[in-house]
């Protein structure tokens, strides 16, 4: 049975006498707008209004429980809805109330019920006709309905299921509400039903409120560890959004699904029901399990631990029909090597999972390629970009050459400008690029503040989050639209793989994906496999980098040869208050300023180190020391310091050995400085 129809299909079928169109629009309880008033202002021609407020059990202590069959028979009969009729339901996208109405009809054995994809918003967007005023059914009917009890669960049945584990419980609420970090209703306990998984219903819809493709819906289920081979039981806050998950499961052809109608309003108000707090899958576990879908690791008789390396250019099809089918959805299956194989897909899945709220991720052969594509996806000739003055030097070079040649104006701004950045906006400002902390001088930016003012003006925000990774800074949750990482560094962690990534929120991913494909961006399966294996140990490595770097940085801050330590976790670092507020940790990269001396004295210091390599990049297990000079590449704010700057990456060696090495180097520096007189 067809479950979704387009506005074009519905328009062509408006004259069908067996067709009933139902406006099931609804608004959140804290919104003053009345759904019926909006229906009277404009609705699809011939549509009848289904008042969701009437479809509830008035005798139940909770406000939205399924009413008695008598009540349902009266309300559906009043609208003339026969179980054999063709019914199309739509809403106004403020709440997924069409899915709730669809579930109620299916619960009572209606056989031909469909949703209008994109609702009234899409209908109007395609400039199709609307009516005003109230429509009344010309033929009310008397109904005798039955109820499909397989589609609904009671509190006691859910309690039994916690013990038996027969059905996988899936919660449609926002992640922070699910975990108990936030509370939607103070009268209810925080948390979720024990052993349940979390799939926010918004992940099933695109930026326009249309349902995603079945391939993307399946990916959303898989990313949240929901096994589609198991019976599924859906729940939410008040029974309003869980039907959207149930509808999505039906789109995938799944029949063994049900809904707990009481949801958290009932469960959370009952002191006798067990409750859990925390995420469904904790960070360390997600790092280990992400990207290991069953179909990518399972073989005859068992499964491998790591997704195998699929090397391919040509993909062979069984028939012309198979080729044509793949051509219509080239990114949903094996199509051509440049489109990827399960090896690359596994890494994409894993990186996306680490960014709550993301749509998906695109991989690139280097970090520079990733930041370049992120910028090009957000900008067009004539646009203006605000670029942080403390950015990675190749980022600045790209702006001053490629973007300039394309007629894109770049304005550099002080990294500590905060919300005052709004004064730099012009009608042509389209994107803001942030790098926090800066890669040489480590200023920490007020990312939430900048994102807040940017989004008020519909300006895209892009962040280079290589230093913190999503483990130490959750960029999308803080308002970033496009998150860039040089996976060359901490993701791979072994200084032997070049790679970049951009993870995008809904509304930005499709353009990013399209322009990256047009530029032929591609990551080989061997590099993807290397990054995926590095990702598994990211958390334990980062914690060790953090511990070692803090010990070294604090020691340096006490040395007379050191004028200034630029480590975000230390109060001496510009923007430290934002690090303290927004970040969950610090990595192994920081700089320090020598007390006096010249570049030759700095060279003596670095050349005398035994445990520090001298080279570009960072993020591997080895420690590095690099002479840097921020002044020539700063234009928005001048850089002044008491002496030359050294950037350190603290690796996984014993920090006491590193400190002893640095102490010897500082001794050599002091002797050279005293001799040179600087």
From TrEMBL:
It catalyses: an S-substituted L-cysteine + H2O = a thiol + pyruvate + NH4(+); L,L-cystathionine + H2O = L-homocysteine + pyruvate + NH4(+). Residues 15-132, 163-276 form the Rhodanese domain. The keyword Transferase applies. Pathway: Amino-acid biosynthesis; L-methionine biosynthesis via de novo pathway; L-homocysteine from L-cystathionine: step 1/1. Its cofactor is pyridoxal 5'-phosphate. Transmembrane segments: none annotated. SUPFAM superfamilies: PLP-dependent transferases, Rhodanese/Cell cycle control phosphatase. CDD domains: TST_Repeat_1, TST_Repeat_2. It comes from the Bacteria. InterPro entries: Cys/Met-Metab_PyrdxlP-dep_enz, Cys_b_lyase_bac, Cys_met_metab_PP, PyrdxlP-dep_Trfase, PyrdxlP-dep_Trfase_major, PyrdxlP-dep_Trfase_small, Rhodanese-like_dom, Rhodanese-like_dom_sf. One of its GO terms (molecular function) is cysteine-S-conjugate beta-lyase activity. One of its GO terms (biological process) is transsulfuration. Coiled coil: none annotated. Keywords: Lyase, Pyridoxal phosphate, Transferase. PANTHER family: CYSTATHIONINE BETA-LYASE-RELATED. Belongs to the trans-sulfuration enzymes family. NCBIfam families: cysta_beta_ly_B. This is Sulfurtransferase. The lineage of its organism: Bacteria, Pseudomonadati, Pseudomonadota, Alphaproteobacteria, Sphingomonadales.
């Amino acid at each position: 049975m067809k479950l979704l129809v387009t506005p074009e299909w519905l328009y062509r079928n408006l004259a069908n006498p067996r067709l009933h169109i139902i406006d099931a629009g609804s608004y959140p309880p804290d919104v003053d707008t009345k759904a019926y008033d909006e229906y009277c202002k404009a609705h699809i021609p011939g549509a009848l209004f289904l008042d969701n407020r009437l479809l509830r059990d008035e005798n139940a202590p909770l406000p939205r429980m399924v009413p008695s069959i008598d009540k349902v028979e009266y309300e559906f009969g009043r609208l003339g809805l026969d179980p054999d009729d063709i019914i199309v339901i739509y809403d106004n996208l403020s709440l997924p109330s069409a899915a709730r109405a669809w579930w109620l009809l299916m619960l009572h054995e209606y056989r031909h019920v469909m949703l209008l994809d994109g609702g009234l918003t899409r209908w109007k967007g395609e400039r199709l006709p609307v009516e005003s005023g109230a429509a009344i059914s010309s033929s009310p009917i008397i109904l005798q309905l039955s109820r499909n009890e397989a589609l609904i669960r009671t509190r006691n049945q859910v309690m039994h299921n916690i013990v038996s584990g027969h059905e996988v419980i899936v919660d449609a609420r926002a992640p922070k509400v699910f975990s108990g970090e936030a509370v939607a209703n103070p009268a209810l306990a925080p948390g979720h039903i024990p052993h349940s998984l979390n799939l926010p219903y918004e992940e099933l819809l695109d930026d326009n409120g249309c349902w995603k493709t079945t391939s993307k819906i399946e990916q959303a289920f898989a990313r949240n560890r929901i096994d589609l081979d198991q019976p599924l039981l859906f729940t939410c806050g008040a029974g309003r959004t869980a039907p959207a998950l149930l509808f999505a499961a039906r789109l995938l052809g799944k029949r063994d699904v049900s809904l707990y109608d009481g949801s958290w309003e009932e469960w959370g108000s009952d002191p006798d029901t067990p409750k859990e707090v925390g995420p469904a899958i904790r960070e360390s576990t997600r790092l280990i399990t992400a990207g290991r879908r069953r179909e990518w690791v399972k073989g005859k008789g068992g499964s491998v631990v790591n997704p195998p390396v699929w090397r391919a250019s040509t993909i062979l099809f069984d028939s012309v029909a198979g080729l044509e089918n793949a051509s219509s959805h080239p990114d949903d299956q094996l199509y051509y090597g440049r489109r990827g194989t399960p090896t690359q897909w596994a890494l994409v899945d894993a990186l996306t999972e680490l960014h709550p709220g993301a749509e998906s991720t695109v991989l690139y052969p280097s970090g520079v390629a990733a930041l370049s594509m992120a910028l090009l996806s957000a900008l067009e000739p004539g646009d203006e970009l605000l670029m942080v003055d403390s950015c990675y030097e190749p980022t600045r070079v790209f702006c001053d050459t490629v973007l300039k040649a394309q007629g894109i104006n770049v304005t550099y701004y002080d990294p500590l400008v905060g919300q005052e950045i709004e004064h730099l906006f012009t009608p042509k400002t389209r994107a803001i690029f942030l790098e926090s902390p800066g890669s040489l001088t480590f200023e920490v930016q007020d990312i939430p503040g900048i994102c807040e003012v940017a989004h008020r003006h519909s300006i895209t925000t892009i962040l280079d989050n290589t230093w913190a990774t999503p483990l130490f800074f959750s960029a999308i949750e803080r308002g970033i639209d496009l998150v860039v990482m040089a996976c060359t560094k901490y993701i791979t962690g072994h200084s032997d793989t070049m790679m970049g990534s951009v993870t995008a929120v809904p509304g930005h991913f499709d353009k990013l994906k399209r322009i990256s494909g047009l530029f032929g961006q591609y990551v080989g399966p061997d590099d993807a496999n290397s990054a995926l294996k590095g990702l598994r140990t990211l958390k334990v490595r980062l914690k060790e980098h953090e511990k070692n770097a803090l010990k070294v940085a604090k020691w340096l801050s006490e040395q007379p040869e050191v004028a200034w330590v630029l480590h975000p976790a230390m109060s001496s670092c510009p923007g430290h208050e934002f690090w303290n507020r927004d970040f969950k940790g610090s990595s192994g990269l920081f700089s320090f300023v020598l007390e006096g001396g010249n570049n030759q004295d700095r060279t003596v210091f670095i050349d005398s180190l035994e445990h520090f390599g001298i080279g570009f990049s960072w993020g591997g297990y080895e420690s590095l020391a690099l002479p840097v000079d921020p002044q020539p590449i700063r234009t928005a704010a001048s850089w002044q310091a008491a002496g030359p700057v050294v950037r350190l990456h603290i690796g996984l060696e014993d920090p006491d050995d590193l400190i002893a090495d640095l102490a010897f180097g500082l001794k050599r520096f002091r002797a050279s400085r005293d001799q040179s007189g600087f």
